[in-house]
Amino acid sequence: MREELVKRNATEIQDNKFLYKGLKFDFTVHPLEIVSTDTDFYKQIDKKYYKLFTNLYFSTAIKKYLQDKYKRKLDRVEKLIRQEVNGRNNHISIGYLKKMRLHYINKYKDAGNIK
Known about the structure:
- This protein is an alpha+beta fold.
- The protein folds into 2 domains: 1-45, no CATH class; 59-115.
- Helix content is 57%, strand content 16%.
- The protein is built from 4 helices and 5 strands, in the order H-E-E-E-E-E-H-H-H.
- A 5-stranded antiparallel beta sheet has the order 1-2-3-4-5, with no helix packed on it.
- Strand 2 (17-20) and strand 3 form a beta hairpin.
- It is elongated, with a radius of gyration of 17 Å.
- The two termini are 15 Å apart.
């Protein structure tokens, strides 16, 4: 997997630690540690994604992880849009949420095109 990260131009932040598509791969510990960099406090990804990274091709695993991530974000934005329309009905907030939704849709599509 380390070779795959180097091939894909992942950012090496320290010896055997890489950042790629919002994930930090740490090869200095055994077993491999993969954490999400979505928040200020990095947290380990779910066990099901560890299995994907160990059992499938790297591109398939990263694609599945990113699609699930952006699907969750899209669902959250859709919920916020519904709440805004049914609640305050603030057009500025609705416009912002629509832009966020379009951004996540594009990210979701880009995740599907990873080779």
